[in-house]
Specification:
Layout lengths: L1 H21 L4 E4 L14 H11 L4 E3 L5 H5 L4 E8 L6 E8 L5 E4 L3 E3 L4 H13 L28 H14 L3 E5 L4 E5 L24 E7 L2 E5 L5 E7 L5 E4 L2 E6 L2 E8 L2 E10 L1
Parallel strand pairs: 1-2, 1-3, 9-15
Antiparallel strand pairs: 3-4, 4-5, 4-6, 7-8, 9-10, 10-11, 11-12, 12-13, 13-14, 14-15
Helix pairs in contact: 2-4
Length: 279
């Protein structure tokens, strides 16, 4: 009886912990190809994981078919990884979930199978691993934005006082100071003198990009905006009459042999940088 109570308490605690972890995320993103495999949906692992997530009440989507709000804010989703710990005699797998900063926030128990055929063994191992989610009563919690409170206290002044202050300012601002007596004849202009200060011309400096940083292309009128993972719009590019060539604010972006490059001039020197763009 004592062991049953301890097991029940552990199960309830585990369920509550998992539920609180998942409730902050609207989507679960499933890759078409897990890192352990060479082909997309090998042994039907991707379709199986997505199906089991949907059965457990989650909104599961493939990585190449993200909803618009998730494209704008990648942190609304969790990202699935399949951990293949198989040995020669058995298939072992667990499923982990990472947030937008690649931090692991949850991992299932390890599922095992001794089936010899890979498709059957991975199916059995994954199904056993995903049973960890059956105790999760998932409900997505929309973030609550607190209303902005604006106070106009002491912002309104009496019209009479305002008029008096304006008159006083006019009286204090004299364009000419003069003194005319028998003894003294003087005249001094205090009108503003035109300044010869010249505003410095600011050079347009192209945005700095890291070649390993992933930029996501979101379609806009006549082009795309390139968004990073925060998400933040880093650059807007516009279509030209030449295929895979786009105009940017301070240069061009073009595609060549499956890669993308950003070219611009800095102090009359041509600079070329490779970009990692996902269209």
């Amino acid at each position: 009886m004592k062991y049953f109570i301890l097991f029940a308490a552990f199960t309830i605690s585990f369920s509550s912990m998992a539920q609180s972890v998942f409730d902050d995320y609207k989507y679960i993103v499933v890759p078409k190809r897990f890192a352990s495999f060479k082909k997309e949906n090998q042994y039907q692992t991707s379709t199986l994981v997505k199906h089991l997530l949907t059965e457990n009440g989650f909104t599961a989507v493939y990585e190449d078919a993200l909803p618009e709000d998730l494209l704008i804010n990648r942190c609304m989703g969790l990202y699935v990884k399949l951990n293949d710990n198989s040995s020669m005699f058995s298939t072992k797998a667990s499923v982990s979930f990472e947030d937008c900063s690649s931090k692991e926030i949850y991992i299932t128990e390890e599922g095992k199978s001794k089936e010899k055929e890979y498709k059957l063994s991975f199916s059995e191992a994954i199904r056993k691993a995903m049973k960890s989610l059956e105790v999760v009563n998932y409900t997505y919690k929309e973030p609550v934005n607190e209303p902005i409170k604006v106070s106009y206290k002491n912002d309104v002044k009496k019209i009479g006082n305002t008029a008096q202050e304006s008159t006083s300012k006019v009286q204090k601002t004299q364009v000419v100071q003069q003194e005319a007596t028998k003894e003294v004849q003087s005249y001094k202009s205090v009108a503003p003198v035109k300044s010869n200060f010249k505003k410095a011309v600011k050079n347009i400096v192209p945005l700095e990009f890291n070649s390993e940083e992933v930029l996501y292309a979101q379609e806009i009128t006549n082009g795309y905006q390139l968004v990073d993972s925060t998400p933040k719009v880093r650059l807007k590019v516009y279509k030209t009459s030449v295929k895979d060539v786009y105009l940017a604010t301070s240069g061009i972006i073009y595609g060549k042999e499956g890669k993308w490059y950003y070219e611009y001039y800095t102090n009359d020197v041509l600079t070329t940088k490779e970009l990692n763009i996902k269209f």
